[in-house]
Amino acid sequence: MSTSSSVTAAAAFVWLGMVLAISFLEAPLKFRAPGVTVRLGLRIGRIVFRALNVAEVLLLVAAAVSVAVSVSGAGAPGPVLVPVVALAVLLAAQLLVLRPRLNRRSDRVLAGEDLPRSREHLVYVAAEVVKVGLLVALGVGALSGAG
User: Which residues cross the membrane (predicted)?
Assistant: First the structure.
C-alpha cells in the first residue's frame, strides 16, 4: 500500500469515526441528559459542530491532497476519486447552505420562538448518512490500493 493510500484511508476512517460519534451519538443523546434544555443543547451543538466542521475540512484536504498525489502518479483512481469529490461537494453544501439555515433557525429558538422540527434538520441528517457511505467507500477504496 502506498503512502498516499495510507493517508487517504486514515483520513477517511478518522473522519468516519468523528461523524458517527458526533452526529449519530452525541447530538441526539445530549438532549436526553438531565438538565439539558433545548436551548442549552443548541448552544452545545453549535460549538461541537463548528469544531467537527473544522476537522472535516482538514481531513477532506488531507484526503484530497493524497488522492491528487496518487492521481498524478498513476492515473485517476475511480474508487477514491469519486468519493473524495462527492465528499467535497456534500461538505460544501452542508457548510454553505444547510448550516447557515440551521443556524438562523436555532437563533429563533434561542430567542424564544417555539418552532416545529425543521426539514433542513432532516436534510442535514440525510446528508450525514450519505457522508458515512462515501467515507466507507473512500476508506475501502484506499485500502484496496486504488488511492
Answer: 6-27, 47-68, 80-98, 122-143
The domain locations on the chain are 3-143
> What whole-number distance in Å separates Cα of residue 8 and Cα of residue 75?
16
Residues lower than pLDDT 50 in the chain: none
CA 125 distance to own-chain centroid: 10
Q: Write the CB contacts of 106 (distance below 8 Å, at least 6 apart in sequence).
A: 42, 45, 46
This prediction has a pTM of: 0.91
Q: Are 63 and 12 in contact (CB under 8 A)?
A: yes
Dihedral (CA of 83, 56, 122, 29) sign: positive
pLDDT the model gives residue 146: 58
Residue with C-alpha cell 476519486? Answer: 81
What pLDDT, on the 0 to 100 scale, is given for residue 73? 66
